[in-house]
Amino acid sequence: MSKKLLTTLCFAMLLAFPLVAQQTVTGTVTSDGESLIGVNIIEKGTSNGVLTDLDGNYSIKVGEDATLVFSYTGYETQEVAVGSQTKIDVQLSAGVNLDEVVVTALGIQKEKKALTYSVSEVDPAGFAEAREMNVVNSLSGKVAGVNVSTTATGAAGSSRVVIRGNNSLSGTNQPLYVVDGIPIDNTNLGSAGMWGGSDGGDGISSINPEDIESISVLKGASAAALYGYRSANGVVLINTKSGSKRKGIGVEFNTSVRTESLINTYDFQREYGHGRNGTAPTTVDQALEEQLYAWGEPLDGNRNVMQFDGVERPYGDAGDNIGRFYETGLTFINTLTLTGGSDKVNFRFSASNLDNSDIMPNSGLTRRNFSLRTNAQLSDRLSATVSAMYVSELADNRPRLSDSPGNANYTAWSLPATINVETLEGDPDKLGAGADGTELQFNDNVFVTNPYWAAHQFDNDSKKDRLMGKVQLRYDIVGGLYARGRMGLDRFTNRTRNLTPYGTAYSPRGQLSEGQREVQELNTELLLGYDQDLTDNITLSLFAGGNQQRNFSESIGGSGNNFNIPFLHAIGNLQNQSVNYGFSEWQVNSLFGSAEVGLMRAIYLNGTYRNDWFSTLTSPVEGAEGDNNQGYYSAGVSAVLSDLLVMPRTIDFLKLRASYATGSGPGVAASPYQLNLTYGIFGQGHLGQALGGITNGSIPNSNLIPLLTKEIEFGLDMRMFTGRLGIDLTYYDRTTENDIISAAVSSTSGFGSKIVNLGEMSNKGIELLVTGTPIKTQDFSWDINLNYAYNDNQVISLLDPENDEESIRGGESRTRSAYIEHVEGLPYSQVAGFAYVRDEAGEIVLDDNGLPQQGEFTHFGTGVAPTMVGFGSTFRYKNFSLNFLIDSRWGGKIYSATNAFAYLRGLHKETLEGRETGIGSIPAEEVEDYYGRIYSITEQFVYDADYIKLRQIQFTYNLPSSVIANLPISGLNIGIGARNVGILYSAADNIDPESTYNVGNAQGLEMFGVPATRSVQFNLGVRF
Amino acid sequence: MKQLFRNITLVAVALMLTTTACDDGFAELNTNPNAAIEINPNFQFSWIQLRTSGERYENWRAVLIYSSTMMQHLATTCGYWSGDKYFYNAGYSSSLFDRQYTQAVKDIQDLIATLESGAAGDQTMLGMARIWRTVIFHRLTDIYGDIPYSEAGKGFIEGIDFPVFDSQEFIYKDMLKELEEGIAQISDEGGFGSADFLYGGDPAKWRRFGYSMMLRLGMRMSEVDPAEAQKWVEKAIQGGTLQPGEDAFIEHTNGPEGINRNGIGEVLDLTNGSAGEGCPRLSATFVNWMKDHNDPRLDIIGTLPVNGTEHNGMPNGLDTETLLDNPTGTSADDFSTVNQAIVKVSSPMMFLTVAESELLLAEAAVRGWHSGSAQQHYENGIRAAMKNWERFDASIVVEDAVIDQYLADNPFDEANAMQQIGEQYWAATFLNEYETFSNWRRTGYPELTPVDYPNNVTGGTIPVRLVLPQGELGVNPNMQEALNRQSLGTSFPDHFTVPVWWDK
User: Fold this and answer.
1) What's residue B19's pLDDT?
2) Which of residues 292-321 of B touch A (CB under 8 A)?
3) Could you tell me if B325 lies within 8 Å of chain A, comparing CB atoms?
4) Is the four-CA dihedral A445, A450, A455, A456 of positive or negative sign?
């Protein structure tokens, strides 16, 4: 096989545009004698496809031995082998395709009607054409119950995907991603926190959307049960495209240009300029102190006022700083795909280059994907799949977020109206620098960095090289008995460089950190299966197997501060140098089995069991207590009532299902060395003495076990009016027990937290998917898709019997007056802080000085929206197609530190009140004290995070087959897509309500992130 | 078919039977190759001492931004130096509390538990560790009042997640008992040797250090419980306090890690890895006091203003705008700064100096708790205080003749002894601001004139404690009781004005 493969490959490489033996097939598609317009015709196994025209005619160029697939909403799909035919007329019969097959856990294919649980398939159409930098963002609003949160972290940032609500207060709540059967790493490589930082990206963003054939989302514990300890957060199965039998090499080239422009959500006051106490500065010292405050005098463009650099400039509206500072993001994506195959072997190769410059100046992402997948039938019984993906990713200057040091956003957003951000540019050859080459400081707080210096002189780069590979063999032993073995590897090296340059105000001689981290996961799985129809009415499907998962991570780096030679930013030039080293290794062994019985091909019973053994829970200290393994099971039933009972004519299909499963999330199972107290050596000693102490920041616990989820799920699947209306409804009720809580303990215990199995949480909800085709005429069709999900989350217990603990702190804002807490009896991730002191009538009570007061500590609501509604629609007219997607969230809260600072600095429009008249007993020149006090009152800055966004508009035009027939190509499409087109509704002042700065368990905090953007993509695809 | 089922069953059973082997080698795999399960007490004691000296974090916030400006050693117009104008910054105020428990308390409790169990080390180590524990805790309670003490740092050892807040009275009595017992445990055998940065493990010096600590803590109770104070002061004097040259301090170095450096130096050393903290100037109160007393330390502590040939202190409580109306200077460059030679990252960090010990002995003599000569101790104290600066930089030399002249210019005056001693203590503890702040609160000397900046949170009085972390209230259910006990209300900024137990 390999020789053949190599030959084929080499051939493909050498002849990038080879002479392709193609034939043109034409024909007409009809139904009951009427021609059908817009029927989708695809050459099987490729993305080569056309649509029928007005008269139902089509023309398509195909490879030899191709098979054409004719599909049309509301009609049964047909496949026709082309052979030597050049004209193929097809009659489609109205009806519903009920024998669809879906990919389920461990890559086992099942008939959809046999499923006892919900599996959502996502149509990846448009993923490539209206592209998100991180492919999972494309899921937003498309699948009921799948909550995708993007972060305000720039182009190369992470996303947070949560399915059916959050299960764990401390562990990850994100699903397991499985690509072609192999679990891949989705570690978030760094996140911003209250003291700043940047997002290091995640694992799933490496996947090239153009390689994706289909995505199945296993939402519930039942669907995912066979993934054992990784099942609780659901599983996203990604299947990549493969080649198919054809003559010669199919070549496809896609090119896209994507522009990104910021959505300016800021609406700050432009009536008063920089200054304090109602006066503008008159000296340089004052200007330095007051440059960031808009508590000055009314704007007057005819008057010159002192600024930080000693220059007096007009005290008028200096214009739009945000527009000046940020750039238009630009992304070029080019993808070349080669496919080919014979009876025995097929392959698909793709190479893609993505080149992005972000809206943040001097920031961007380059990503190269190479993917090769081959399938081979080695003998009648033995088949093999070998695939590999290589991804090389270079993130240039990941933006710093949250707190001010090195965060360009912080300043770019928050300058008073009288300051032109370009006055901070400094040396045009070294942006942000003053005459001596060091940071041009424009205010007296060294920690508020010049935005040009932050964007252009800081470095925060990462380069990731990643290889995902898989080898799979399947042997059909006899009858329905088969064996399958596979090995999958995901390995990456992430090289990071983080520079605070020489001359930075808060670190005059600079800092540098260089690091490299290697992460690997290796899975080996063996499975024995048996599928047999015992009688016409009884079908049987069994399998059992085992998996070994081995993970490894090692990091090595050097860091230090104080460059000796100015501006030589090399690690050897540091006065103080330290070496960092980290290592961890862990393993999970599993055994699993599954059985399914079908009766009358209408009732299905299904059960699974899996047991996992964890190295992480095996104590290295002899005689320690605690179990190191856990078992998980599921049981379910489905009944296709429409096959069992007589139904009204309008109902094509009706299925009811019920299932129950236990599951778990990775959490502690993925964290080695946590069971006992350990000591380490710190630094490099002092005066010749070694320094050693406790390394644990958390109180260790040798009795840890993984959390356990229990979920019951009921569902209804109905299709009516010959497929014109579909309803898929699910109810689920899941509880989490023994959640590993890094329980907040008093820091006076010596530790920041304690790891315990204490948490209980509940998620109950419904998911509804309605699909419909309200209009369908010869020329025009209109499809709609409405999905709705409501999740009722509640933290049931955090109870430590000893201490009666009622809440856990999950995060804190830089303002130090807002927190995220998990509170018993309330939903996860409560935005918490101080309310106003109010009287019985609800009026704000002022203190003796006339200032509002911080009152009771209050939980304002959850940072995770419980309700999501998505609405999508596609219009098709002849060869044109237009779709849009509206996405909304309801019921969540967000604390905006940006708005808190806008109060403190006098930028917020609400701070205009009282500037001439004073407020109560506060004289006009001291109103900044009034608003400065409000800065610390959390309540003022907690907003409803509700939004409605026009998430996507996409327009596609396929060149008609009649035109293509005269061209030396076999297909051409042109598309324009736009993502995040607009915020149709938002209740938050000045910010995008979707702008949290991290993907962890502190959801609901915002502070000076990268602004939201709107992207427009132009796409051209040619097939030869 | 039956055959097939049998085969499947066999395979399944075979798989199940292997379950005993499903965790082979896991214990080894879960052993961290980069950490140990026990530690040499020497390594841990060195670590704890450096952690007590602290990081830039709390030295910047609690020591410099708050204490040094409230005590009018330093002054600044920078708005975020909250102590200069009596503003409340929650994080700055609670910084010492926020850091010390997880950094020093955790390991000292672990070390003491190990030493007590006899698993490692010896009794002399235990004695020294117990004395060092009081060094850590007395600062915390002096600054914050009632704090977690008896149950603190025992999250792992005793499983205490939420330590109670002990009353300061209880803490003081227990610390004094600990000092007494700790000193008694120190023999000429064993100890930490050169892992001890204070005295290289010298048992005699450690005993004297222990007694000087006892003197300090005993004297702290002079106003609230004079009888008890006298008892402990007498016990300390009887035991024998620090001798000349025996200042308790830790040498710091240029690095490589932050922990190797002096936390104050990391802020104020403008040449060496600081954040370029150019805000502070010497306070006019401090400069004028030195000028009034013709004090040779002025040239050691201060560097002449950029604009000027004479030392000039900045008045506390000014901002850049009010500075413009200030008669003694209208630009930051008109004022003296701290001499870079004494705030290097490699400067020593003082914990308890002979000067302090001697000045306390002088006070004891004045109070009649000590038969020695108040004047002699007073002069010893001043001599030690001046000489102490020689430790900071080779360029600093204080000739005996200069000290003699100063003593001649400023003779001991029995009638104003308490004021004289208090002011000298204030001068001698420059940069050891925790101690400055405590002794000022106890004695009322020097008599500082508070500033009254608009909208300060104390009503224009100098704070008499720092405010506990608000966050702790949400986490630790025992904190509320401590607030109630000390009459600390719901408004945290108001806590600044509530005296601690010994501050009567």
Assistant:
1) 47
2) 319-321
3) no
4) negative
